User: Fold these one by one.
Assistant:
Number 1:
Amino acid sequence: MGFNCGIVGLPNVGKSTLFNALTNTAAAQAANYPFCTIEPNVGRVAVPDPRLERLAAISKSQKIIPTQLEFVDIAGLVRGASKGEGLGNQFLANIREVDAIVHVLRCFEDSDITHVEGSVDPVRDAETVETELMLADLDSVDKRVTAAQKKAKTGDKEAKELLSVLEPVLQALQAGLPARAAKIDASLKPLLARQQLLSAKPVLYACNVEEASAATGNVFSRRVEEMAAGQGAATVVISAAIEAEVAQLNSEDDKREFLEALGLSETGLTRVIRTGYELLHLVTFFTVGPKEARAWTTHKGAKAPEAAGVIHTDFERGFIRAETIAFEDFVSLGGETACKEAGKMRLEGKEYVVQDGDIFHFLFNV
């Protein structure tokens, strides 16, 4: 599994249309009225990685298995969601379960598609959703800080450590900033992540533009980019309408020709995945053999046993060492045997930090 992204936004901004296109399914009902997505729809897509096909060709692998990316299409949010308005409680509960947020913003004019706020203003829409997330967090964190302070007075070490995370978060929220903007020591980031705060999750703004602006963006998307730059957030310009059309094409040649005619070199899905990987600090490693060539995902900074654990918990528990080949060496020399002969296969131990593109064979004993 690669990672898990919740697709969020106000009603009628193109969330479900984008979800349908990205997952190439009709699982989510796309309709011109609020809350047409009532239960979160989940779709998995293969992460495109041309390196995997090259490895499979060299090793004559019978099967190619890419890593997977999961999208969750979450019901539209409206003002007051933090107080339960609309489908607020459900929205907030669903969003707690995802690793990152793909925030779809309407960046196109269309008199046939109503806007819940009555006009198109993606920056305002982004602030509406962000405010609801922060208000929900503020209420939750305020209560947790009060409880932790009482425990800390008794000398409780865990409570003191928790306060070192929650107090800066509370200050940020009270100042109108999301939890992810709180100044917290890097060593405490895992503890922050375990709090499942809504506004602590990394955000990718997906600017849903009209077809004519898919390659260049428009005035609306540029305003979003300025806003995101101030937050240190990522943005992607995407046309849900185009993605829906591409999803209907069967052959890769047809898809490529269609995109080229619009001045595009890749699908929005590819851009979302690439930006999402950067957002979540992920890397890809591979296992390759005659039976299958397979891609796996772990986080940057992961050590070899953690990567082994992605494949199977026994691999991590009984980890001995990892036979490791860099992707460039594998390709340039023509496979595992040639890499061994050239001394390009390394034996890495428990402290080895995984590099993007590493090809592993894990040795373990349980």
Note: The two ends are 24 Å apart (CA to CA).
Number 2:
Amino acid sequence: MISKEELLESDFLDQFKTGEELDRFLKSVFNRGMEQILKGEMDHHLGYIKNDKKGDLSGNSRNGYSNKKLNSEFGEIDINVPRDRNGTFEPQIIPKRKKNRPGIETLIISLYAKGMTVSDIEQQLIEIYDINISTTAISTITDRVKQDAIEWQNRPLEEVYPIVWMDAIVFKVRDNSRVVNKAIYIAVGLNTSGYKEVLGLWLGKTESSSFWMSVLTDLQARGVKDILITCTDNLNGFTSTINSVFPESRTQICVVHQIRNSCRFVSYKDRKAFTADMREIYTAPNQEAGLHALDRFEEKWGERYQYAIDSWRENWTELTVFFEFPLEIRKIIYTTNLIENLNGKIRKYTKNKMSFPTDDAVKKSVYLAIIEVTKKWTMPIRKWGIVYGQFIAIFGDRMKR
């Protein structure tokens, strides 16, 4: 069936004097097209075309039409839906008990995922498509993704993930007539084909290592047997939590987080020189050279900013795991920028919602935002062939499992 866009791009527009005439024509084309498709569905259902003698002994036949009002991208349209005498005909293109064409439902869900409120969507549909759908109906449509979200959250996972990034993002949620902060925990895995995938989202209180334990246990229950490298922020107790569930996993604390924390109280006049000297630590060729750079860094800045040096030394083991790997893997794991970029896009899609009325509402919005963002995750990471070979060489049978 010809689309609205194809019609608008064709040369026939000149014959219409007003936009209203064009709209009426488009609606009539859509109406005829839908009714023809429904008749075709009925032919297939009965097993014979109209007036065919095969129908005499079929045990079922056509039984007129019922009228249905359909919300479409061309506005509200009256459609004649064929009926059969046995009442067994189930149209696919316009399911029973539904007023909205599937394309409209997809549009509503997509607009909601991009951060529009239900009232904004209602207004948008009226202004652009001349479709009047109540906010209650829009909420009902978006609520249908709940089952999809449950299935997605509980889907089986691969046995081995070379890398998993973990982080949390905080939202304001109404809880017992109060608005409180709650954290959405997110894990992104790099699978053995080199593709990124969001492994799940979990709602809890403010980020804590104890809740991350339940997240990791859930991953394990869904089939994950091994994670080679985990990338996290420097949350207290996070590394020991990971190792209690995946004891062989190597945990890399985000170096970028460490840099930010180190610069937090550095005066503006010192910051440029301070960050340049600190760069010598994490760009060193190996851990020994990095430790030597840290010693020099302390000699120069220790008197004024000892807290920064102490932080590097306290977290040195987890901060420098990336030194154990080739340069291609180092670039992937030394920072959690990948998951922070995902969180930033989730924030962009949910920024219009100052707070969420329920836990389900925030989970639904974040799930839809994730689905929108990950539509573009269609390619493996750069140089995956080289990186895959390096993982095989380093981890051997663990990678091949």
Note: The CA atoms of residues 79 and 94 lie 10 Å apart.
Number 3:
Amino acid sequence: MQNFELFINSPAYIYPFTLLLGLIIGSFLNVVIYRIPKMLEQEWKSQCCDLLEVERKEEPKVTLSTPNSTCPKCGHEIKPWENIPVISYLFLRGKCSSCKTSISLRYPIIELVTGILSVAVICVLGANWAGLTALLLTWVLIALTMIDFDTQLLPDNMTLPLLWLGLIVNAYGVFVPLETALWGAVAGYLSLWSVYHAFKLVTGKEGMGFGDFKLLAALGAWMGWQALPVIILLSSLVGAIVGIALIITLGRDKNIPIPFGPYLAAAGWLALLWGNDITQAYLQFSGMG
């Protein structure tokens, strides 16, 4: 027990361990980000075939564990030593060991980002229940960010368990009291739901997806209703800046939808770690503090 306490209380031990754990989880998140949409697509196809009573074309079933990862170009099966986070990418010089096709830099970046953000969580919250549960939230938010960026989907099989987990965690008062978490989930969902329907009533267009409602509800369940204004303001500000920058610099069509989930996820993560500091800084800047 004494050795364990020394481990979790010593930066020399806990931070490198957290970084290594984050890199490993980041490698797994690459699989989640790629395969969850594929799994949903297969499920939807199966449901459509059952509904229309037509024969479904057989295809290999995709899960998080099967089939084994392969090179999309030549089909070379990735060996365990070729799947070491970051190190394998550098050793292979960013290319498939078989056909020498370039491997996207995105994979090691996600691994590195996951490792760095994991260390930040433990650094701010500590190696305690708050820190450990915040790691889970961080990892899911990273996966949701990339899935929404790729597909403009925030899967229910990730957002809804995240919401329930937030309520369960706060049943023990880890971040906020359970009552505050409950109303945070309700207010998070209804706030964006109201904006969605008001925007649709005025313009006849859908401004966001239902997944955004559920993600904000999950963040409310984790951090309580008091954190929602900070999350909404931060996500809206960053979303507006990025959207305008894309239109100006890349000539992006303003009618092409931009996923809002990544901005909600980033704002929620910042609010989890520094929400009070951000609020106090804003109040002082505005002269209300």
Note: Residues 235 and 264 are 5 Å apart (CA to CA).
Number 4:
Amino acid sequence: MGFKMGIVGLPNVGKSTLFNALTKTAAAQAANFPFCTIEPNVGEVAVPDARLDKLAEIAGSKQIIPTRMTFVDIAGLVKGASKGEGLGNQFLANIRECDAIAHVLRCFEDDDITHVEGRVDPVQDAETIETELMLADLESVERRLQNLSRKVRGGDKEAVEQERLLKAAQAALEEGRPARTVPVSDEDRKSWRMLQLLTAKPVLYVCNVEEASAASGNSQSARVAEMAAAQGNSHVVISARIEEEISQLEPDEAEMFLEEMGLEEAGLDRLIRAGYALLHLQTYFTVGPKEARAWTIKEGTAAPAAAGVIHGDFERGFIRAETIAYDDYVALGGEGGAKEAGKMRAEGKTYVVKDGDVMHFLFNT
């Protein structure tokens, strides 16, 4: 399992440039005019993880298969999108299909690139999009409450539960708060997700800065950082231009280029890590002579469900999991050394998989 992150923002903030860099393609046309992205462009990228390479080296794996994540480059939003302005309706529908939102904010000055509002103010830009999403959610909630009213009067239990959650969302939205600020119990979490509220999705602010500020950010990205902290959201600083250049280079050249720019790693790595943290994701591994492979699961996933990510039969017929912690696997030279040292554990159905676990599942067919 990977996850789908929608790249959103006002027109001309660098969304398509970032998408091109992340997916190492030129599929998304990066042009200096609004709505150059008419259809959402979808790209899958391998999630870089140095641990996987290390495991493959120790096991002599013939193939390395990283886990993957999906980026969706969504058409630029403008003020009034909730009422259908610009490509608003299409934009809003595309966001609903994503697990999280990477909100790209323009934090650079460039007279050659038009700003749709005629000024550079990332905090104001963020508020513009948040407002449009909240208005769209409020309209959706009010419409659904109206449609539910007859069932609620008839005592339909499911409708009554849905109404309770919708009213909680409505109260927050009317106060000018996004739906993600509503406290939701574990029992309600699934039903809450089914509401598909735009402002319930976690947000990662991506500060697109000029090349000279890629390492440490600038005054505009500092303002975004302050806003994100106040909201309980995350942010990363990236120069989309630099990322696009790096994406065209060979690995060795890219590493040298990063050093010259004073960067420890590519922005993609930072973005993925921030995205994983945002959605509470983690990775486990399966390793053997044929292949070393990474798998993405939610934090707190029990062993049978983790096995189910590989194949449904693994979950249905789960017997046990043979598990080695990553550090033990590396320190003891692989599976054989871990077994001899008593570091391979047999875990049952209640075992909660840890980040970095090397696993082998036994199951009935």
Note: The two ends are 22 Å apart (CA to CA).
